[in-house]
Amino acid sequence: MFRSRKPALDFAMRFFSSKYDISAQRDIGIIAHIDAGKTTTTERMLYVSGKTKRIGNVDEGDTITDFLPQERSRGITIQSAAISFNWQSKYKLNLIDTPGHADFTFEVIRALKVLDGCVTILDAVAGVEAQTEKVWKQAKGIPKICFINKMDRSGAGFSRTAKELMVKLKTRVLLVNAPVFDGVEASGEPMFKGVLDVVNQKILRWDTSDPENVSVSEIIEGSPYWGELVKLRESLVETLSEFDEHLVEYFLDTAEGDYMKIPSDLMNVSIRKCLLAGYATPVLCGASFRNIGVQPLLDAVVNYLPSPLEARWPEFNYEVPVAIDRKNGAIINKNKNLCVAQAFKVITDPIRGIMIYVRVYAGSLNSGFSAYNSTTGAKFKMGKLVVMHANLAEEIKQLRCGEIGVLTGSTVSENVRTGDTIIAHNVKKDGLRSLDKVKELGLRINPIDTPPPVFSAAIEPRTLGNKKLMEESIAALIREDPSLHISADEETGQTLLSGMGQLHLEIAKDRLLNELNADVEVGKVMVSFKETLNSCTALKQIETETGYRLSIVVEPLEDAEATKNASEDWHSLSTDNNFLIVEKSATYSASNWPLQISYEQFVNALASSSIVALQKNGRIANFPLHSCAVRVKRDWEVPTDTASVAQVLTLSRSLIFEAFKELSDSSFDILEPIMNVSVAVKQEDMGSVLQDLTGARKANILSIDDEHTLDSSQDADITFQKLADEQYLPADNTLNRANISTGATVNKVIRGMVPLKEMVSYMNKLRSLTQGRGTYHMFYHGMEKVSNDRLASILEEY
Ligand SMILES: Nc1nc2c(ncn2[C@@H]2O[C@H](COP(=O)(O)OP(=O)(O)OP(=O)(O)O)[C@@H](O)[C@H]2O)c(=O)[nH]1
């Protein structure tokens, strides 16, 4: 089953030059709660596949994918890293290791946008954690395999975690393997040695000092594991049979009702079918740190996760016919020469300059060819193309359908940002002209949503002479990470840097000072408050002598959504959940387009002015506006000879400012970030922690559960609870929970919604209330109106 490892490959890229076979390609991500073991597992995958010749460790700061200095010194993943490698010589995997910390959630969002499948890693002791539930939801619609990691830890619970998967994540489980224990640890607990392979009916045991030394033994009738295997296989076949009629037929007719007679190939086909249909999730286990279970996980990736041929299709701005060609991948609009790709990540490399990560959805991108950015309307020439192996690059001539690679070169970097759609011709260098202007050049993949920033800090240069460098450095940072935002207050001259959390801003500051050498001072990190509208502005119109005509209304997003219809073109303004709505023109259509500027250029000008105007117009405390829509009425006109969009920008910006002027203060509300918080404490600490949460922190408590008790969970679903109770699960023999009966040390998990402002420095308080034993996690839930009793004190402080 396991390929023998190729001799030390150094970081050679020769694996990569394998023949292009789209059905043997997997674009996958590793997602999980913080510290579940994503990077450790990735590192082992690279080693056992022969990609690297030594295993890096997170704790020693020498892993391949965590290559940023901040990642190595802090032992956490900050940015998602893409790496390509082969498995079973036939398959090519493009893998993205994503960060687990909630502050870097945008990295997860943008990686998921271009991935076809995921491995969800769970910590076998902690089970399904708050962030696991969050990334699971973020990856909705993407087929996922679960890997229950850290099976070597005291208190690990394979079956308990599988049960939590069912109840909390509402999925059926397919136990592809189960843990095997031999001997005892120094602590007296059973020693995790390997896995029982339910599909292939084998036991795999690892020599932990040499991950490639795997002993494989058949499980024969009468051997100690036979009974367990029979129960697990029966359960697996039964679950598959509820969905897969073909398997039922085989089971009854050919296998004569014997669960053990179903060939492993047929089982794998059935598991894949169930996963791709969203019916169930394959579950495996291991201990990556001890090198156990990684090869079966890679086998599962290639056996069960989809190739680009079977993957879900991205959402476009309008419907186009898509056909799947087994050899070349997707063909859009019946045009074999059309290439469509999306940029999902930008990084600045000290040697190579700006590098833009793209995923190709149809056709191929070729170096030196012309390309069109259908998001911005800019035409440019492709520079060099490379494929990344963490921070090492391999130059290639062509990126084909389903592949993930990097665009380089100054024309590309000037013209492409995160989320943009790139259109090109497959074979003709200057083939853009032969593409259909309406159906093909106008095609846009829906952009990547940026979560709203919740913390900000004032930032200024230490000396005035450094202002320009500071601005350039911040621009470079934001280009890489659009979840960082900058806003300038013209009145006070203050510049605010905003981000997803305190750690996010701390890392940004670190990078500004140490990587970009910007001599800046960063002030206290504060929660970002916003304002929103509760009524529409009046219609504001302008008609100039030169032939411009614009009519604009700004309205609450809720109102706009309630009346949304097909004659409106919606554009996310990226920040603060604001949108630009352009009503279909009364004067122009795609077939009657006399203007020199393109529709995309016109819309981009409107979007830029809307972003600037909405950043300032909060009336109560000048906070930026949130959840608002700028609507451009259908009577808009632009002079035919307009070559630049600068005038559209100026006019629309002043119109939005004018529109706001007529509103009274009562048309605005203040919004604040609300966090979804879960606090795990010992039973004896619960009273004081709860009191502090509901009193000082204004928490709205949603549930209080025993850790790992699923019945009263807020999201418990009766169907999945029942399925979980019926599911065969082997006994958890590392479940070192004898102390549960004493009651005194049972962990309680308190879940609630809490204003972010009240959670600042919560760690210190929790430590003092629980003698350092309590832990907590929180992630952004949404913006809500500030309650009246807290409004005055907030306004005073800000
Ligand atoms: N005992 C044990 N520890 C493990 C295992 N896998 C990972 N760890 C440890 O868990 C910690 C976190 O591992 P990482 O691989 O950094 O986890 P991660 O999910 O990538 O973390 P972030 O990317 O920062 O969210 C490190 O100290 C690892 O050594 C395992 O199988 N067993």
From TrEMBL:
The answer to whether the entry has keyword Nucleotide-binding is: yes
CDD domains listed in its UniProt record: EF-G, EFG_III, EFG_mtEFG_C
UniProt xrefs under SUPFAM superfamilies: EF-G C-terminal domain-like, P-loop containing nucleoside triphosphate hydrolases, Translation proteins
Give me the residues that bind GTP, please.
Answer: 32-39, 97-101, 149-152
The similarity comment for this entry is: Belongs to the TRAFAC class translation factor GTPase superfamily. Classic translation factor GTPase family. EF-G/EF-2 subfamily.
Single GO molecular function: GTP binding
In terms of superkingdom, the source organism counts as Eukaryota
Please give one Pfam family short name: EFG_III
Report keywords, A-Z: GTP-binding, Mitochondrion, Nucleotide-binding, Protein biosynthesis
Annotated Tr-type G domain ranges read 23-309
- The protein in question is named Ribosome-releasing factor 2, mitochondrial
The record's section on InterPro entries has:
EF-G-like_DII, EFG2, EFG_II, EFG_III, EFG_III/V, EFG_V, EFG_V-like, G_TR_CS
GO cellular component terms attached to this protein's record: mitochondrial matrix
A Gene Ontology biological process in which this protein takes part is:
mitochondrial translation
- Identify the PROSITE patterns for this entry: G_TR_1, G_TR_2
Q: What does this protein do?
A: Mitochondrial GTPase that mediates the disassembly of ribosomes from messenger RNA at the termination of mitochondrial protein biosynthesis. Not involved in the GTP-dependent ribosomal translocation step during translation elongation.
Question: Which locations, inside or outside the cell, does it occupy?
Answer: Mitochondrion
